[in-house]
Specification:
single chain; 112 residues; alpha+beta; Alpha-Beta Plaits; 4 helices; 11% strand; binds iron/sulfur cluster; binds FE3-S4 cluster
């Protein structure tokens, strides 16, 4: 199993999660992060750290789409291990529905 970053990360991108991951398996897109499913050791420490509650264990139902997206983009986005500056309007996007359809970006972030 693995943990998975889901839709509510988009445009929130708080990055508290990267600071606690013991195996540095987060990867950075322009406006969200993903977890590499083959590197995650299922420790679970990142899940409660996310202010947007965007991180879920893949044992929850209906996460196939997000598991696939995490795997796809972890292969091409750069690794990130330290918290950067979240978007200035991050709080405004917390909980907004339909963020994937409207705002998902396949562009890579800067990484570190
Ligand atoms: Fe990293 Fe643990 Fe979160 Fe997996 S569950 S991404 S290993 S902190
Ligand atoms: Fe995203 Fe939550 Fe991490 S918003 S960047 S999964 S702390």
């Amino acid at each position: 199993m693995t943990y998975v970053v889901t839709e509510n990360c988009i445009r929130c991108k708080y990055m508290d999660c990267v600071e606690v991951c013991p195996v540095d398996c987060f990867y950075e897109g322009e406006n969200m992060l993903v977890i590499h499913p083959d590197e995650c050791i299922d420790c679970g420490v990142c899940e409660p750290e996310c202010p947007a509650e965007a991180i879920k264990p893949d044992t929850e139902p209906d996460l196939d789409f997000w598991l696939g997206l995490n795997a796809q983009y972890a292969a091409v986005w750069p690794n990130i291990t330290t918290k950067g500056t979240p978007p200035s309007d991050a709080d405004k996007w917390d909980g907004v529905p339909g963020k994937y359809q409207r705002y998902f970006s396949p562009a890579p972030g800067a990484g570190d």
